[in-house]
Structures are given as structure tokens and as C-alpha cells.
Amino acid sequence: MAKLTEKQKALLGERPQSDGKRKKAGKMSNEEKKAHKVNAPKDPETKATTGKDIMDLMGRDCNIGANSEEILKKHLEFTKGRIVTRFPPEPNGYLHIGHAKAIRFNFTVAEENGGVTYLRFDDTNPCKENQEFIDHIKSNVEWLGYKPWKVTASSDYFQELFDFAVQLIKKGKAYVCHQNAEQMSQYRNNKMNSPYRDRSVEENLKLFEHMRQGRFEEGECSLRVKMDMQHENPCMRDFVAYRIRYTPHPHSGDKWCIYPTYDYTHCIVDSIENITHSLCTLEFEIRRESYFQLLKDLDIYKPIVWEYSRLNISNTVLSKRKIQTLVDEGYVESWSDPRLLTLQGLRRRGYTSSMINDFCAHLGVARKGNENLTSVKLLEKFARTELDRTAPRTFGVMEPILVELVNIDQAPTKKCQAPLFPVDPSKGNQTYTLDKFIYIEAEDFSENHVDKFFGLTP
User: Fold this and answer.
1) Which candidate in 82, 199, 320, 367 is catalytic?
2) What is the CATH number of domain 394-458?
3) Which end of the chain has fewer CB atoms surrounding its CB within 10 Å, N or C?
4) Of 90, 111, 386, 441, which is the active-site residue?
5) In tens digits, what is the pLDDT along the chain, a chain of 458 residues?
6) Cβ-based burial of 183 (10 A; exposed 0-12, middle 13-18, buried ≥19)
């Protein structure tokens, strides 16, 4: 494996020790590597990376991740050698501090290489999505200072996704399954084929059309992608591509009653939008093989996939599912509650976009595991650092105690100077008048002298 450049190390972190040490069967052939090199020719105008640079960005080798020269030629006609990334949030909640890291990474890795970034809504589950979440996501991405090249949604491609599903059925790569969720889970865990797996192409086409027409109840059947039920990776065991939902969609309304799943949609839309680098957190690494296999079965462009560590913050909850529970059960007032580390909650607490961006820049991006915990005090440190530079000092007393200074009864009042910005006194001072009566904080007074207490005592 080629060594990472210093810039790549700063951007992506050190290569994991296990990288490049997998069995030879998983490595790319010389022909596949040559095909990858067509991906991005040198172009000083667009600052495009070379094929070798792109190979270095891969988290691990995957023998089905290569593209043919013909597919890459068509891909390059669209990208013109630029890096193209996407930030793909599900509109089922507000963005939080973890999303800020993902936003920054996707936008900066493209910008620094002369590329562009989509804001794409992964809106395939209308049961949990609504316009409020969509509007807040757009607002917070803009508030952080990022401007998407295009704003799209998976629902924009519902017809194309349906057509691809029909194509898979015709290839014998997908089938309608009448197992319920419990049965399906049991069969997949035990590596057993569904009893409906060997239906004919004609029957599957007919049943899938009946699904689209709304002739079945929710949960009565689903469309599954035929992969390998004996595979060690559970994501390769015939995952669900379409399920029935009689719920109006925020964008498409009631046009559809079948909706594609994440596993089916994500990779295809990445391909349709000519994403060069699909960047996601490590919990999605297990899906990499099914991601590439589905695109291979459809014979369409395969982006490069690279996973990085998720951001976990101490003393808070970042799971959208858990935050929704806190909201629903009244533990917090809303997704904007300042006790939460949602971006809207942080804004209400007084955080600025630069504080959050500086925090994310300091953390960097690496593949060191999803269990690492970052102290919330580090986030607070970046707030204090910025306020040191931008917030003029003043004095206030929250719980006042009146103090009489008896020894200046006859003396003239005294003027005291204090800097507005202690880190930069050149920005000016403020004047305070000291006279007979002053107020101090109650916690700064003790009737009894105590060692190491530096407040006022008799």
C-alpha cells in the first residue's frame, strides 16, 4: 500500500494497522487498479486527485469496488475530475453536534480539492419524516457556513429506484417475499433461504406491481435483493429493498405506497449523483460489501467508500431515537432545548457556528472506533476561547450582599480601571467607581473563617 501524504494524514488520520493485511482474495487486480486510475486525471484547474491518490483514500480494499473503463468515462463526463461528496441526513429529527463533524468533513474534503457537495435528504421513511425537520436541517447547514452545490432528496429518484428494482427482478436478482419481520430475521440469522426465493421472474414482476398498486397490507410482503444467504456478513443475506407504507410522503405525497430502504437507496443514489467519495461513520462499514454488490449487479458506477469514527460527547445524548423519546415524554421541551447538543439547542445556549466548526476542526477525522468519548468540557473550552476574544467583560452580582466600607467614609470616591478584553488590553478599558457601599456575591462571604477560603470574612 502506498504511504499517505501529510495532507491526507491530517485530513483522514493514520491508516489503521489492519489496513492492507487482508487475505489476497480481497485485493484488487492490476486491471482493476488501472480502471480506478481513469477515475481522476491530473487537472490543475479543478485540483483533481490522481487515481493513485483516490486508492490511498480507501479504508480497505474491496475486490468488487472497481469500475469499468466505460463506466468511469461516463462518470468523468459529469464530474470533470472534481471531487463530489454529499451530506445525506435523514429528516427524522434535528441535526446535532455529531452531524456538524460530518457536515464539515464532507464539505471541506470537496472544497479543498476544488470539488462540490450535495445536501441530500435520505427521505425513504415517511413514517418518521416531516417538513419541520427538513427546514431545520437546511437552516442549520447554512448557519454553520456551508453552501450546498445542490439540494436533493432520495425521493427525487423514486421512479429511477423503482425501475432499477424491476431490472433486478428481470436479472433474477430480486424477489417478492411474504415472510414477516420475525420470520425473516430468524431465517437470516440461521442462513436459511426464504421459501419464496426461487419464484419465477414473471411471478415476481407481477407481485411487485401489485405491491406498487396497493393490493397488499403493510407488512404482508416485501421486495428483497438476492445476494448470498450463506455469507458471514449479515448485510449480504438478501436484505429488504422495498416495503409497503400507506403513509403520505413530505415530498411525493401519496404517489407511492412502497418505499425503498436505506440499504437499497443509499448506494444507488450515490451512483446516480456521481458521488466520488461516499464518506460515512464506521457503523456503516459492514454495509460496504452489499453497497458494492448491488451496484455491480446493476452494472452502474461505484463510488469510493471511506468510513470514519463517529463523534460521541460525554454527559449528553446524541441518538435521535433517544432524543425523540425525551421530547415525546416531556423530559425536554423540544428538539431545541438548550440542554441538548442539537445544533438548535446549542444556538439557544449561545454557541456560535465558529465555536462548533473550530471544535470539529480540532477533533479531526480518523478511524479509531465508534466507542471513543470526547469530553463535553473540550467543546466548552472552544466557547470560552472565542468569548475571550469577542465578549467584552463586565461585572454583575447574582445573589448580592451589601457591604459597607467604613474606612473610606470621608475619603473621595475612587476610580478603578479594568480591561474590556483581558486577553487584549489594547481594545480598551471600562471604569468602575468605588464608594462607601458595594455589593458582593453571597458565596464570596463567610461568617466564619475557613482555610483556603478567599472571600470576605470578619
Assistant:
1) 320
2) 2.40.240.10
3) C
4) 90
5) 556 667 556 555 666 555 544 333 344 444 444 443 333 333 333 333 334 443 344 445 556 778 999 999 999 999 999 999 999 999 999 999 999 999 999 999 999 999 999 999 999 999 999 999 999 999 999 999 999 999 999 999 999 999 999 999 999 999 999 999 999 999 999 999 999 999 999 999 999 999 999 999 999 999 999 999 999 999 999 999 999 999 999 989 999 999 999 999 999 999 999 999 999 999 999 999 999 999 999 999 999 999 999 999 999 999 999 999 999 999 999 999 999 999 999 999 999 999 999 999 999 999 988 888 999 999 999 999 999 999 999 888 999 999 988 877 666 678 889 999 999 999 999 998 888 888 999 999 999 888 889 999 98
6) middle
Query: Cα separation of 65 and 289, whole Å?
Result: 9
User: Under 8 Å CB-to-CB from 451, ≥6 apart: which residues?
Assistant: none
pTM over 0.85: no
C-alpha cell at 237: 443475506
Is residue 90 annotated as part of the catalytic site, yes or no? yes
Q: 310 catalytic, yes or no?
A: yes
Catalytic, out of 15, 101, 310, 367: 310
| In the chain, where the domains are located | 394-458
The C-alpha cell that represents 85 in the structure block: 461528496
- The closest alpha carbon to 333, from 319, 318, 348, belongs to 348
Which residues share a beta bridge with 404? 437
Residue 137 CA to residue 119 CA, distance in Å, equals: 9
Helix or strand or coil: residue 176? strand
Q: Are residues 93 and 335 in contact, defined by beta-carbon separation less than 8 angstroms?
A: yes
320 is catalytic: yes
Which residue, 434, 454, 432, 451, is CA-closest to 443?
454
